[in-house]
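Comment thread on ticket #2218

A.B. wrote:
> Attaching the input chain for the structure job we discussed in standup.
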Amino acid sequence: MISNITRWLENSLHLSGKIQSDIISSIIIILVLFFTRRIVLKIAFRKIKDIRMRYRWRKTSAYITFAFGVILIGRTWFEGFGLISTYLGLVSAGIAIALKDPLVNLAGWAFVIWRKPFEVGDRIQLGNHAGDVIDLRIFEFTLMEIGNWVNADQSTGRIIHVPNGKIFTEVMANYSKGFQYIWNEIPVLITFESDWQKAKKILFKIVKKHAEYLSDSAEKKVKAAARKFMIFYSNLTPIVYTVVKDSGVLLTVRYLCEPRERRGSEQAIWEDVLKEFARHKNIEFAYPTTRFYNNLSESKNKKKK
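C.D. wrote:
> Ran it. Output below, let me know if you need it in another format.
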């Protein structure tokens, strides 16, 4: 029966016995590699509960399986060339000529795996796109987008697929590597008539309550990061800066926060500020108004009767 099928394929599809044998061998190799990977992952996942580790196992096993498949199937079809290096040389030359962009993306993937400018789970910005890295593949990586029309670096709900080659042409910022914290600033504008010194003390007390606990941890992270990067920070504690603007006194609250906690920390601080300022009649927020000034009655140098 097998010989009949072989003759039919040879007569109908013009497939020689050698080609039929290579096709069957290739299918067997694919099936063996596929089921071997499934079995290995099933055994590994019984002991591994961490989502990140499971993801890395899936990705690493997929890369290894793909590499073995290319080599084994290549040797099956090109055994006449003798050495596998000859086969790989011909394949790489063809790819370099015909597939420039995919080759650049492949090089980008190798760079990401080797140098690790970011990993799955990191929050990054590459060019105009920012988000959390949720997947990394040979030709592209995937971001859960943040920002855009949504304020304070929160998720938009969109998934963005970015070619790996962009790592060579776009400026990249990593929120999660090195220092691992970001500085956030909240501008609070009060009127000239307000007691700005009292307001500054209130703001400092509030930001100290919400952010000072990060200072010790941040100092340790800075020391660790300084071994690899030239990072210098003389002051990591919260601070309130004072500057005069056209419409009032601007008190800028500056503090450390975790990248994913920016909006939540800002909300908590603003709610405390609103509550505290409401208790003090001599502190008022400044906003655009029209005012008439009488120099004779309001000037500091007005004549006393």
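A.B. wrote:
> Thanks. Noting for the ticket: The first helix runs from residue 2 to 12.
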